[in-house]
Amino acid sequence: MLKVQELREIIELIDQSSITEFTYEAEGATVSLKKAGNENIAVVSEATVQAKPVQAKPQVQVAEEQPVSPEVQPAAAKTADYDHEIVSPMVGTFYAASSPESDPFVSKGSSVEANTVVCIVEAMKLFNEIEAEVSGEIVEVLVENGELVEYGQPLFRVKK
Fold first, then answer.
1. Residues 157 and 140: beta-carbon distance below 8 Å
2. Which residues contact 82 (CB under 8 A, 6 or more apart)?
3. What is the Cα–Cα distance from 98 to 76, expressed in whole angstroms?
4. How far apart are CA 26 and CA 52, in angstroms?
5. Which residues pair with 42 in a beta bridge?
6. Is the Cβ–Cβ distance between 153 and 93 less than 8 Å?
7. What letter does residue 50 receive in the DSSP assignment?
8. Which one is predicted more confidently, 147 or 20?
9. Higher local confidence (pLDDT), 40 or 85
10. How far apart are the first and last CA of the chain?
11. SS3 for 57?
12. How crowded is residue 144: how many other Cβ atoms within 10 Å of its Cβ?
């Protein structure tokens, strides 16, 4: 289930955008936001995601394609074990470095501490530094520089 702060951030991002309707489904919970004039209406319900698979079909397909890849190649998944995924806390653009001419914050094999900045996610012209939140080694980088990322999308895999 989404934390209250995460829900507030989503509402704020939707409020500041031109999006009029938004639905997010994960782990049996559904969050639907609709703009009605100058106010937002948020509906949070706990139900199975399978109850409404058509509603967010393009987003669901993108989210499902990434986990399928490791299953297709089980040998690769076994050699690249991980204990934690660093996920995007918001919808935005992923940047691996602080500027185009700079080296990436981290890459495969990099050691990180909980407070190590691993990337930047830009949302609404704000550049948000994303920290690892765990100590360990980056075993996989899951997104490309400049790629659009969704809320909760895995960005890195870390072995503690």
1. yes
2. 139, 140, 157, 158, 159
3. 30
4. 11
5. 33
6. no
7. G
8. 147
9. 85
10. 25
11. helix
12. 8
The helix, strand and coil proportions of the chain, stated in percent and rounded to the nearest 5, come to 25, 35, 40
53: pLDDT confidence band, cut at 50, 70 and 90?
Answer: very low
CA neighbor of 86 nearest in space, from 120, 35, 59, 48: 120
Question: Contact 159/81 with Cβ under 8 angstroms?
Answer: yes
Q: Which domains does the chain have, with CATH numbers?
A: 4-55 (no CATH), 81-159 (2.40.50.100)
Token pair belonging to 137: 């080694």
DSSP assigned state of 103? P
Q: How many CB atoms lie within 10 A of CB 157?
A: 21
Please say whether the beta carbons of 40 and 33 come within 8 A: yes
Give the pLDDT confidence score for residue 87 in this predicted structure: 94
Beta pairing partners, 142: none
Cα gap 20→33, rounded to integer Å: 8
Maximum Cα interatomic distance, the chain, rounded to a whole number of Å: 52
C-alpha dist (Å) from residue 4 to 7, 11, 28, 47, 123: 5, 11, 17, 18, 19
The one-letter code for the residue type at 146 is G
Range from 11-15, 56-60, 82-86 that averages highest in pLDDT: 82-86
Q: Which helix (H) or strand (E) holds 4?
A: helix 4-16
